[in-house]
Design a protein that fits this description.
This protein has 172 residues and is of the alpha+beta class. It has five helices and seven strands; from the N terminus they run αβααααββββββ. This is DUF3993 domain-containing protein.
Length: 172
């Protein structure tokens, strides 16, 4: 019981006290379609497990794009194309936030705005996990680096159609 109260207190704190939270509640729940109900009834293969290192690394790998010497992105011409790519592993709101902060469209092409990458999870370091329910977790990590100093980053991950997606991020 104490553990449940502590988890609820942490969740409430994150939502109330954090002004820079990025959250997309549009994907919080969904209605099971006929195919999903059938799959559950037939006891199909086990549901995907959350791997916090993999999902956070994949998000950053997709966010960083190869460019030419003028910072022109080689793979995409529009922000919406990159948002669609990121939306495979995050909510659209999270993808748009990062793409809008790091890229600009000029003359029918997409360019990186020359800047540092935002604060992010460090691979190979411990994550704290809080289980909200079977399909929702919060992942947190305390980071200390030369560029940003000390900060804590928290992400929400939700299983949507048996695939994990980052649905909110908070850095403080």
């Amino acid at each position: 019981m104490k553990k449940l109260v502590a988890i609820l207190a942490i969740i409430a704190f994150l939502f109330v006290m954090s002004p820079n939270i990025i959250h997309d509640s549009s994907n919080v729940s969904h209605t099971l379609g006929i195919q999903e109900k059938t799959a559950i009834a037939e006891d199909t293969p086990q549901r995907a497990e959350l791997n916090p290192e993999a999902i956070t690394a994949e998000f950053m790998n997709r966010l960083k794009q190869e460019t030419d010497e003028n910072y022109k992105v080689l793979k995409y011409n529009r922000k919406s194309e990159l948002v669609n790519e990121l939306s495979e592993i995050s909510s659209k709101k999270v993808a748009e936030y990062y793409v809008n902060g790091l890229y600009q469209e000029k003359g029918g092409s997409l360019y990186v705005i020359p800047t540092e990458l935002p604060p992010w999870f460090e691979q190979g370091k411990e994550f704290e996990m809080s289980k909200i329910n079977e399909d929702s977790y919060h992942m947190s990590q305390k980071v200390n680096n030369d560029l940003y100093g000390s900060y804590e980053i928290t992400a929400g991950a939700e299983r949507i159609n048996n695939q994990w997606k980052i649905t909110f991020l908070n850095v403080h």
